[in-house]
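Customer ticket, subject: "Can you confirm the structure for Periplasmic protein?"

Message body: Hello, I'm evaluating your service for our small team and ran a test protein. I'd like someone to confirm that this is what the system normally returns, since I don't have a reference to compare against.
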Amino acid sequence: MKDKHTERWSTYEPFYVALGDKKVADIIITNHARVRWTDRVETEKTGFSDIAQYLWECLKEGRVVSYYRNEEDVYTIDDDLVFVAEFAVSDQVDLLGIPLHKMIIVTFLGRMSETMELRDLKTYYSWLRHSRRMTLIKNNRKRR
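Agent reply: Thanks for trying us out. I re-ran your input and got the following:
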């Protein structure tokens, strides 16, 4: 989703927003992310364009920050909404020839204010893996 307005007149540079060392020129929402948005974030505005527009505004306002300092795949909006994003190099470049990026939203994990487990994702994921493994072990025992 691109913004139609640039800050200068008669410029041919595509519009982008800097996020860390990436220059985001486009946002892509996956089907899985849209379903998770509906389940975990909002039930009113659930279209792809609604979600992309919201994310684009948050990016422009500087409200999107990395969840971890060193890793670049989990992000938060307003220190509350947690989502996973990947980046792909776009076919566009800026005036200096530096490639721009597409931000691919993989999934929305939810809001930290509603789900306390999201405050420490590493512990949450290790707990999920352990509980799933234990469920599989129990089911395996029942089959024998």
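A couple of notes from the result: Residues 17-131 form one domain. The first strand starts at residue 17 and ends at 19. Feel free to reply with more questions.
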